[in-house]
Specification:
By secondary structure, this protein is an alpha/beta fold. It has four domains: about 130 residues, Rossmann fold, CATH 3.40.50; about 170 residues, Rossmann fold; about 80 residues, Orthogonal Bundle (Helicase, Ruva Protein, domain 3), CATH 1.10.8.60; about 40 residues, Arc Repressor Mutant, subunit A (Orthogonal Bundle). It has 19 helices and 18 strands. The strands form six sheets. The protein has a five-stranded parallel sheet, with helices on both faces. The chain has a five-stranded parallel sheet with strand order 7-10-13-6-14. A two-stranded antiparallel ribbon has the order 8-9. The protein is elongated, with a radius of gyration of 31 Å.
Length: about 475
């Protein structure tokens, strides 16, 4: 049931309109002049006002803005016996959503009222969802006080303040980092603190987007463009108009799709599938990947021109293991969040739990930490979370040694278990390079940074395990 206010000085008509609304299950009231309408509107906060243009003490067009101040979310339907195009235009400019001429068809009016209510509910739902998304996407959600975290937040603030992001052709942003480091949260923070914050934020997971649907999803399609295209569809570039299009895991995009994306970014236009007309786009594109795009470019698996087009502005997020000072802070944050979420007594982290978390490698980064804390909160009986409650991988035993590689990555080796042996490591790497290059000896040697002869020698050492065919 919705609240309807009828502002009409013709008493018989007003009563008929009220009875029609009540018969349809709505709560309906009548105001016979402007002053009564203002008082009633502020008191009952109606979903819909049916407003006559000519009233004893004022005209409806002048009254409408004052009514909107009393009830900003109300929809207004203007009716008049002296209608013309000028009155209709003035009504719409004043904020009316519909315009009807007298004599009013009661069934038509009820249809318009119900449609207005449905549209208002959609607006309110969208407003609620947008508000909730903004609350969960702010800079304050990026938890951490390490130098790396402070630098990340300052970079986001700097970008968000840049008016250039609001231009029709803004610079693209590329966010890199391992899985679970917070690339999505960083993209959302840039959007919701920037000049496009009131416009849509559209998240596209490139790994879940088949090549066959790429153009249709991003650029849209015309009716009849393919067998299942029974109606036209707007692409996500258009849905995100004025806002941000976040292309997550861009490194997994197929080469043919990379070419089409590059063309759209360069020309700032798209052409829906099956259409002959190009459409301009006004979106800020943010891309993210956990893949090393430099290596992907060298391996001809990612277009060099698209790579440089995406990385106009680049943000590299450090893995959690390189931000040890953030681990206790983030963990404490998740303890509080999950205690509130599950309605359990507040808990804290014991010193042994903090020490265990600092030793852990966190290959899944913040996402892994979040799930570990969630499990601990649910399974800990007391008010203090201990190391045993975390159930961290036993790989963090004292025999586990972290080896830092020259390119900044790390591997873990457990020498206490007596494995792996050096020959086993070498064999694994040789096999991987050899198979990756389709058993091409020269290409495999280049990938490993050694000569063809040196590779042949090493492969011969393992001739029983590897058949080179050379």
């Amino acid at each position: 049931m919705s609240r309807i206010l009828i502002v009409e000085d013709e008493r018989v008509l007003a009563k008929n309109l009220r009875d029609k609304m009540k018969g349809a299950g709505h709560e309906a009231s009548i105001a016979y002049n402007g002053e009564e309408a203002l008082a009633a509107c502020g008191k009952m906060m109606p979903e819909v006002v049916v407003l006559d243009v000519r009233l004893p003490d004022t005209d409806g067009i002048s009254l409408l803005p004052r009514l909107r101040l009393e009830s900003p979310s109300t929809s207004f339907i203007v009716v008049t016996a002296h209608g013309n195009e000028r009155v209709a235009v003035d009504a719409m400019k004043a904020g009316a959503c519909e315009y009807l001429a007298k004599p009013v068809d009661l069934d038509e009016l009820l249809l318009v009222v119900n449609r207005s209510i449905d549209q208002q509910q959609i607006r309110e739902n969208l407003s609620f969802l947008r508000g909730r998304e903004e609350e969960s996407s702010g800079l304050e959600k990026i938890v951490g006080e390490s130098a790396a975290s402070r630098n990340l937040k300052e970079t986001i603030r700097r970008l968000a303040r840049a008016e250039v992001l609001g231009l029709p052709n803004p610079p693209t942003v590329l966010i890199t980092g391992e899985t679970g480091t917070g690339k999505d949260l960083t993209a959302r923070a840039i959007h919701y603190h920037g000049p496009r914050q009131k416009k849509p934020f559209i998240h596209v997971n490139c790994t879940a987007l088949p090549s066959t649907l790429f153009e249709s999803e991003l650029f849209g399609h015309a009716r009849g463009a393919f067998t299942s295209a029974s109606q036209a569809k707007r692409g996500l570039f258009e849905v995100a108009h004025g806002g941000t299009l976040f292309l997550d895991e861009i490194g997994q995009l197929a080469l043919d799709m990379q070419s089409k994306l590059l063309q759209a970014l360069e020309e700032r236009v798209i052409r829906p599938v099956g259409s002959t007309e190009s459409r301009p786009i006004d979106v800020h594109v943010i891309a993210a990947t956990n893949r090393d795009l430099d290596k992907a470019v060298s391996a001809d698996e990612f277009r060099r021109d698209l790579y440089h087009r995406l990385r106009v502005l680049q943000i590299a997020i450090s893995p959690l293991r390189e931000r040890a000072d953030d681990i206790p802070v983030i963990a404490a944050h998740f303890v509080k969040v999950h205690c509130q979420r599950f309605g359990v007594a507040a808990k804290s982290l014991g010193d042994d739990a903090v020490a265990a978390m600092r030793r852990h490698d966190w290959r899944g980064n913040i996402r892994e930490l979040k799930h570990v804390i969630e499990s601990a909160v649910l399974q800990t009986d007391g008010v203090v979370v201990r190391a045993s409650d975390l159930k961290l991988d036993a790989s963090e035993a004292t025999g586990n040694v972290r080896v830092n590689l020259p390119d900044g990555r790390t591997i873990n080796i457990d020498f206490d278990r007596g494995e792996p042996k050096l020959d086993e490591i070498e064999l694994t790497i040789l096999q991987a390079a050899y198979e990756h290059t389709n058993r091409n000896l020269s290409q495999a040697a280049r990938a490993l940074g050694i000569t063809r002869e040196a590779l042949r020698y090493r492969l011969n050492k393992f001739s029983d395990a590897v058949q080179t065919g050379a």
